[in-house]
Structure formats: C-alpha cells, structure tokens
Amino acid sequence: MDFKRIEAIFLVAFLCLDIFLFSIYRQSQNEQTPINNSSTIKITQRLKEDKIKYEGKISSEHTDGYYLSATQTNLNTELQNMKKTKKLENADVLRSSVKDNLLSLTPEKDLSVNKKGQIPTLVRETLTNQKEIILGKDYRYQDEIHQQSDGYLDAYACQKYEGIPINDITAQIKFTLKKNDENYRLEKIQQMHLSNLTALREKMPLVSEEDALTTLYILFLIHI
What we know:
Layout: H1 3-32, H2 43-49, E1 64-65, E2 68-72, H3 75-84, H4 90-94, E3 96-99, E4 102-105, E5 112-113, H5 119-127, E6 139-149, E7 152-161, E8 164-165, E9 172-180, E10 183-191, E11 194-199, E12 204-205, H6 209-223
Antiparallel strand pairs: 1-12, 2-11, 3-4, 4-10, 5-10, 6-7, 7-8, 7-9, 9-10
C-alpha cells in the first residue's frame, strides 16, 4: 500500500475542505454585515435625486444594544391595583380600558400646549403624574421619535435598559395630540410595558442610521 500517496490524497482533500468551509464562513459574514457603499453612494444625495423625503438628520453614529428577554406586564392587574390603592382617580379608571395588555386612556384634564416645542415638557410632566400614567417612572420621552399626519401628532416615551431606549411597541407609551391652529391637545394615551428585563448576551454594537438606510435603499433597487 502506497501510504505516501494516501497521505497526499488526504492532505489535498482536507485543504479543499478548509477552503470550502472558509468560503462559507466569509459568505455568512458578508450576509450579516450591512451593505455600506458610502464610498460610491451618498445616501442623502441619492434620496434627494430620487425625490424621497425624510425628516431630521441621518446619523452615522454607531450605538450599542442588547438581546433582551422580558415578560409582558399585565396592565389590567396594575390598573386594578392602582384603583384599590386610590392612586388613580375613579374618573381616570372609567376612562381607561385594557385589551391584549394595551392600556388606552383618555386624560381627564385638558392637557394642551400652545407650541409644538412645548410637547416634550407636556409629555415629561404627564409621565410623572401618577394619576395619569401607570409605572410612568419606567419611561423616558424620546424626542427623535414622532409621527404627524391628518392634524394629529404622536409622541413617544420608551422604557430603557442600561440607559438604552427600547424602541418597540411593547415597551412604549404613545401620546396622541390633536392640532388646532398652533395648539396641541393631548387626546389619548396608549401604553404597553415590559417586566423582568434580562440581557441574553453582552452589549453589542449596532448599525448606524446611515448604514441601515443605505442597506434598505440598495435592497429596494435590487427588487425594482
């Protein structure tokens, strides 16, 4: 038996296998890495050329984030507890309803501001009012998240973990304000809450807004 020949065959086979596995690894890394062609495409310029509008500034900052596990808070139970301890006024309880752990509340008082720039103050003050918001201390107003359409503006407050906002509907409060001339009146509050927040992995770097938008834009071009 020619052992040297067998040894050479095994050596070539393992070398080919290593090359094959390495190519698969590189491919998987490329698939997980957001497309970033900032050297050949400036996303803001391309959006402008395609007449695609956006609000605010597109950030290139890379922040950190966590993979979290949590349980949905039973806000109906929390609401009844607030009622029993009289921390929530009866009028507020009557104006509240809970469905699928989404609490909807119509404020008892006329909460309004004269200017759009006063909305952050209104939201922050409402969060600290224990007669209006359940577990309000767990949320922070997010100035960069808002939606406006048909005479209404939605502002948001989010729960945080280790100082990082949880940008998910299950950990948010949405404040719906109706616009009348220059006045904004708070008409509805919708709330969900997470409990038992636990990190499943160490803190990880996230893609920037610019990277994410560039990736989505290129994927859009691929599919049209």
